[in-house]
Amino acid sequence: MKNLDDQQLVDLCRDGDETAFDLLVLRHQDRLFHSLVSMLKSRDDAMDIAQSALMQAHRKLDTFRGESAFYSWLYRIAVNLALSWLRKQKAPAVSLDALHDESGYEIADDNSQPLGSLLRDEHRRLVRETLAELPADFRTVLVMKEFDGLSYEEIAGLTEVPLGTVRSRIHRGRSELALRLKRKLGDQAAG
Predict the structure, then answer these.
(1) Domain limits for position 22
(2) Model confidence over 34-88: pLDDT tens digits?
């Protein structure tokens, strides 16, 4: 059954085969979880939203039309839940260093030179920290674009925001991120 594609597993689920849905969960849960951690800045919140999204996908499987990939449909459910949660929270920014510590998600590093590795780690830390400071509207679309590799159209569909607004938020988010990074780097150089 592991050799079946997602659509075949969905069809089996609709016919009452619960193990087929278990395989879909195993296939997509890690990717979904890591995307949510980046968006929500909390491993626990990401786990809660991922579980809710999977339960909702199971309940609404009959509404999946197969016009997009199963993961895209599941991701949309998860993003909608995450965006609703973010709107309710309006929580202060949390360091993405804490996100990294909680998630254990590490960017691969092929360079074994200690100084180069240290500088890259510091650069990543600074970018993650600064990204966490951005307003949720900018941070969410930047994570979708830069970390998840989604197109502008996919982001617009998932967030239910007009394409022009998505483009504007990504542009403004990148500009704000660059401005804040420049300030921080200037402060570090001066200090």
Answers:
(1) 1-92
(2) 888 878 878 899 999 999 999 999 999 989 988 888 998 998 899 889 888 887 7
63 by Cβ neighbours in 10 Å (0-12 / 13-18 / 19+) ranks as: exposed
Question: Please, where are the H alpha helices in 90-148?
Answer: 96-103, 114-133, 136-142
Residue 165 maps to a domain: no
> Residue 28 sits in a domain of what CATH number?
1.10.1740.10
CA distance 102 to 125: 14
- Calpha distance 17→99 (Å, rounded): 36
Is residue 65, in this structure, part of any structural domain at all?
A: yes
Q: Which residues of the chain have a pLDDT value below 70?
A: 90-119, 187-191
Question: Dihedral through CA 85, CA 87, CA 90, CA 96, nearest 10?
Answer: 60
Nearest Cα residue to 143 out of 42, 48, 36: 36
- Is residue 16 a part of any domain in this protein? yes
